[in-house]
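User: Can you write out an input/output pair for a complex, sequences first and structure second?

Assistant: Here is one pair. Inputs:
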Amino acid sequence: MITVALDRSADDVREYVDAARPTHPSLVDPEHRVADLYRIVNVPTGIWIDERGRIVRPNDAVFGTDTFVALHGIPSGPHLDALRAWVTEGKLPFATDDAVRAKQVLPTPEEQQARAHRALAWHLHQAGRRDAAERHFVRAGELAPHDFTIRRGSMPIRGQDPMGAEFADLYREWVAAGRPFYEPLDRP
Amino acid sequence: MPSVPFTILDETRPLTVTATVDGDAVRLAPPVLEAALGWSVKPEGLCRGAVCVPTRSRPDLVTAEGVDLAGAAALLGRPLALDVEAGAAALGASAAERARRLASLEAPDFTLADLDGRIHSLADHRGKKVLLLAYASW
């Protein structure tokens, strides 16, 4: 496993990682490069990559436990079972490459434009240009209103509580839009 | 027109160039544009390597003040976030390029630091099954 924290710095996740005592690489991605490369729009997102570096199971909301299943409605069991079968038996979730592709949601020009504004906002924030940064965080959110890595991920950077009022508004908006996320992989 | 230092983030890679501010446009002299981004102005149009896009439809793209950065990015299908007042711009990857790459099912390589500052790449794990898990404190 490789974990990638879409956070500002190692400090944001150090206590979680230290508690987990992982034997796998725990990486930090403040510039959201992995989010950009893989079209990641929320967390947690899991992607399976085989020994040849091929995507065999595309982006999906995957959880390691059922701690919050009442909130998000995604049980951890099916994915963990499938993962175990892949690791121990080589069992693939999709029979063909086209079946994998059918489950991919590919980025749009608006989403990429949003990511450019987010990248600029982060750079300006680090340069101390807070007002200019805010303009671009806002613009990024307008262009990709359902990208939580942009809208929720920017909240701590901008002094907002990612569990607070601004998040409650975002969540309501997302539910009203039909909860867009990834194509459900384990349901027909 | 004033020459100003300008920062361009080319897919997060920071570059500092000298640019000219022309109203709400930012222009780079052709040699500066080529050195920074590898985009060159030729009779065939605006070129990136061997691929050229005609510029006949954009008569204001290249003036004596230089090449309009936003216009050039748009012509090449690259998203650009520009802040003239802040003196910076971020150039991203086109949706077409990202989509093409993901649809190929070749997992894009990346290089990031871990919590101790050690550098890791996805390519380091070729030959093993990988679960790539993105998460966050938010």
